[in-house]
Design a protein that fits this description.
Helix content: under 10%
Structural class: mainly beta
Strand content: over 45%
Number of domains: 2
Radius of gyration: 29 Å
CATH topology of the largest domain: Immunoglobulin-like
Order of helices and strands: HEEEEEEEEEEEEEEEEE
Distance between the termini: 108 Å
CATH architecture of the largest domain: Sandwich
CATH class of the largest domain: Mainly Beta
Largest sheet: 6 strands, mixed
């Protein structure tokens, strides 16, 4: 009879144990402004944009004094799992009043994104610890980023060199043929440079214009520099230059670009032909 009584008592207890809610991160929202509406699934963010993120917590425990104690972290990652910004950590210590039965703690913060990012599927990872119940929860929230695909390189290289007729042209010229009244615009990306401490980048380039015989007709007086440090490793350097052709005689020319990577002690050069008519 005693054995049956113990079994019966355990049976009475099990529904109460099963009913205890599990710690959970719920209602994640990514918006374009603080307190803004959730963005539609598949929305593509742009590099340099700030994401306004929020979520709620359910299933948390309360102390005998009706207090909630939570610790959490939030961090965003690129498609390869590399963090794009420093981790954000915080704690929450709040008293729950009798009238706050439906209250759910809220986590919210602004997440900056790097200016240059590869396109693809990113994620925000939230990790949560209930300091009263000694339980944990985690949630991964996906989002998409739009960006430029620049093929990585083990060595210093220039990618996607293009001639343009104006700075704002979306499409490059199919043939680099200018008139003497035009401005020449060239855009390209530099990849394969090495990083110093704190993802330091130290890249420079000099542009020269050569005649058909190879003589230097014009050379950029000072190198263009990209010297910076960042939390997220800069995947490439955007570069551009422009030149007025008003005093240039009609002929065939070559643009010579000489690139240097001071951190990696590398150099690279590229030659591109164009004509003035």
């Amino acid at each position: 009879m005693r054995f049956l009584a113990v079994v019966a008592f355990a049976t009475l207890l099990s529904p109460a144990l099963d009913a205890a809610p599990a710690l959970e991160i719920v209602k994640p929202v990514i918006s374009q402004m603080e307190g803004g509406d959730p963005l539609a699934p598949g929305y593509e963010h742009i590099g340099g944009e700030t994401l306004f993120f929020s979520c709620r917590v359910s299933g948390f425990a309360k102390s005998a004094e009706q207090k909630v104690r939570l610790a959490y972290s939030v961090q965003a990652f690129d498609p390869k799992g590399v963090p794009i910004a420093e981790i954000y950590k915080n704690e929450m210590d709040a008293e729950v009043l009798p009238q706050d039965k439906e209250w759910e703690p809220k986590i919210e913060l602004a997440l900056p994104t790097p200016p240059l990012v590869p396109p693809g599927d990113y994620k925000i990872v939230v990790k949560l610890d209930d300091l009263e119940a000694k339980t944990s929860a985690e949630l991964s929230v996906p989002f998409r980023m739009r960006g430029t695909v620049v093929e990585p390189s083990e060595k210093l290289v220039v990618r996607a060199f293009r001639f343009y007729r104006s700075e704002d042209d979306a499409e490059p010229m199919p043939k680099a043929a200018y008139r003497t009244s035009d401005d020449l615009w060239a855009k390209f990306n530099i990849a394969g440079f090495k990083y110093g401490p704190n993802n330091k980048v130290d890249v420079s380039y000099v542009v020269s214009i050569l005649s058909a015989s190879g003589a230097v007709l014009w050379k950029q007086p000072d190198p263009a520099l990209e010297q910076s440090e960042s939390f997220y490793p800069k995947p490439y350097v955007q570069a551009s230059m422009n030149l007025s052709l008003k005093t240039v005689k009609p002929a065939e020319y070559t643009m010579l670009i000489q690139v240097k990577d001071a951190v990696g002690n590398q150099s690279y050069e590229i030659r591109q032909s164009f004509s003035v008519q």
